[in-house]
């Protein structure tokens, strides 16, 4: 430990800060400085917002190996766990994504059933109807219009509300609070207040279902309380995780993906002209790979010494898997900085890897397939209503995307 | 070739079903199940892909 401290102090000036700024002219690419680190080696030390140091894992192979290693912990209370911002330090648990096995597996398995591939496939017609209805509204309304507000956010929000059983009429409450919860510049007080309001709301919804169960996920979660398998607080945290994860990520993929396509007209043309669901599915994988919206890395604490890539990561040290550059690793993807909807990008790590890999990925995939396969066909002249320089990117949020996207046609 | 699945490790990501629907399915909880234990060359590439994308490393191919 003494060696580590001395070494850290000695190298203090050489340790780069993470995260790094993106280049404003290439808002779809990871920060250039981050890509340079990848060429330096698979593991480099970086300095975080609070002055602490952590290992940054830059290469795809090492990222997958570590995310699949039982000696790495997702428990934010572990020594060395690298927090993303002051707002995140000290907050309550966000259910099983912040737990290790066996408790992680026990709780995660309580909510896996509705996300099975065939059950999600059965939802496709309903999602298609939602998407078509929102496009009808767009076409009938004024332009330019903000695609985030009028289209990208309502789709996943409507779908996750339906799955969970949360009334969509309350969307202002959870969308506003979610915005605060995912903003890196929120103070711990702001974040705490937003979390409490959301948790209070969901605890109430779950409470209602203990006495009057319905055919929805919240009722399933409520039944676990009755069965003594979850406390009311654990159930609330689980619902909170599903609600936030269910709409924030997909909404950003819809808007940012559309903006990226508008700036790659040859690729957009492929989607506009195809009737092949395989090409649409491949486009979804490639956009997930290329955009990689979880841009602050997947973070873990190491619980036992791990030797990897000629380096020993010590117990009590933090590791950050920079999956956005893992997805641009030239060892795995040819010409990785090129957006190519026809490539096979399925091995990307946009949903993470290991036991915490995104539970909702079949849902996210299906929603994005419906959106990317419909929007540009139904509005073939869709265009950005502002220059790229005027678009506000979410560099200040845990999930990358755009704050607004004015579009016209 | 023989396919082996450790259901205890499965995290219900459904990736195997997406790439090799003839070999894998999911039970009522989303946990992977094997439809075929022995596969021929026609399904080999799909199963290799399933092994590669399984986040929990729960699938193995064994030479018989």
Helix share, percent of chain B: 25-40%
Query: In terms of per-residue confidence, which ranges of chain B show pLDDT below 50 for 5 or more consecutive residues?
Result: none
Strand content of chain A: 5-15%
DSSP, total strands of chain B: 4
Name the biggest interface: A-B, 26 and 20 residues
Mean model confidence by pLDDT of chain B: 94
Number of H- or I-type helical stretches of chain A: 16
Strand content of chain B: 15-25%
Structure description:
The complex is a heterodimer of chains A (409) and B (64). With 409 residues, chain A is α+β, with helices and mostly antiparallel strands. Chain A contains 16 helices and 10 strands. A 5-stranded mixed beta sheet of chain A has the order 1-2-8-5-3, with helices on both faces. In chain A, strands 4-10-9 form a 3-stranded antiparallel beta sheet. In chain A, strands 6-7 form a two-stranded antiparallel sheet. In chain A, strand 6 and strand 7 (311-313) form a beta hairpin. In chain A, helix 6 packs antiparallel against helix 8 (154-164) and helix 12 runs parallel beside helix 16 (361-378). Chain A starts with a helix and ends with a strand. In chain A, 46% of the residues are buried. The model of chain A is unreliable at 1-12 (pLDDT under 50). With 64 residues, chain B is of the alpha+beta class. Helix content of chain B is 28%, strand content 22%. Chain B contains 2 helices and 4 strands. Chain B has helices spanning 15-19, 41-53; strands spanning 2-5, 24-26, 32-34, 59-62. In chain B, the strands form 2 sheets. A two-stranded antiparallel sheet of chain B has the order 1-4. A two-stranded antiparallel sheet of chain B has the order 2-3. In chain B, a hairpin with a 5-residue loop joins strand 2 (24-26) and strand 3 (32-34). The longest helix of chain B has 13 residues, at 41-53. The mean pLDDT of chain B is 94. The interface between A and B is medium-sized, with 26 and 20 residues.
């Amino acid at each position: 430990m003494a060696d580590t401290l001395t070494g850290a102090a000695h190298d203090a000036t050489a340790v780069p800060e993470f995260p790094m700024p993106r280049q404003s002219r290439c808002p779809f690419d990871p920060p250039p400085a981050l890509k340079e680190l990848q060429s330096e080696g698979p593991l480099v030390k970086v300095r975080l917002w609070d002055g602490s140091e952590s290992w940054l894992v830059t290469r795809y192979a090492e990222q997958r190996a570590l995310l699949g290693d039982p000696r790495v912990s997702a428990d934010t209370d572990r020594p060395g766990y690298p927090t993303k911002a002051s707002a995140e330090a000290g907050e309550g648990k966000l259910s099983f994504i912040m737990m290790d096995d066996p408790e992680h597996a026990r709780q995660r398995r309580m909510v896996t059933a509705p996300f099975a591939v065939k059950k999600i496939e059965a939802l496709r017609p309903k999602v298609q109807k939602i998407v078509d209805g929102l496009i009808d509204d767009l076409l009938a309304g004024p332009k330019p219009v903000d695609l985030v507000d009028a289209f990208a956010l309502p789709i996943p929000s409507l779908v996750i509300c339906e799955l969970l059983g949360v009334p969509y009429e309350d969307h202002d409450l959870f969308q506003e609070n979610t915005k605060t919860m995912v903003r890196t510049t929120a103070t711990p007080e702001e974040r705490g207040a937003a979390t409490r309001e959301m948790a209070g709301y969901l605890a109430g919804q779950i409470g209602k279902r203990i006495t009057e169960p319905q055919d929805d996920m919240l009722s399933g979660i409520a039944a676990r309380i009755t069965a003594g398998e979850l406390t009311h607080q654990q159930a609330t945290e689980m619902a909170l995780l599903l609600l936030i994860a269910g709409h924030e990520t997909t909404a950003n993929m819809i808007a940012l993906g559309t903006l990226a396509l508008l700036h790659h007209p040859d690729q957009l043309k492929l989607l506009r002209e195809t009737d092949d669901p395989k090409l649409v599915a491949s486009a979804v994988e490639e956009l997930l790979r290329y955009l990689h919206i979880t841009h602050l890395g997947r973070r873990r604490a190491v619980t036992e010494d791990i030797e990897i890539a000629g380096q020993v990561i010590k117990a009590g040290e933090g590791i950050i898997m920079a999956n956005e550059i893992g997805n641009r690793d030239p060892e795995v993807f040819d010409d990785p900085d090129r957006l190519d909807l026809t490539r096979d990008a399925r091995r990307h790590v946009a949903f993470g890897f290991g036991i915490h890999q995104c539970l909702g990925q079949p849902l996210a995939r299906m929603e994005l397939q419906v959106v990317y396969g419909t929007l540009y066909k139904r509005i073939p002249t869709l265009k950005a209503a502002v220059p790229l320089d005027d678009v506000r990117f979410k560099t200040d949020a845990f999930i990358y995307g755009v704050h607004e996207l004015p579009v016209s046609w | 070739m023989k396919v082996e699945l450790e259901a205890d490790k499965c995290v219900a990501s459904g990736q195997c079903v997406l790439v090799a629907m003839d070999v894998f399915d999911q039970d009522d909880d989303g946990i992977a199940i094997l439809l075929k234990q022995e596969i021929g060359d026609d399904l080999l590439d799909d199963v290799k892909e399933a092994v590669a994308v399984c986040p929990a490393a729960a699938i193995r191919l064994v030479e018989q």
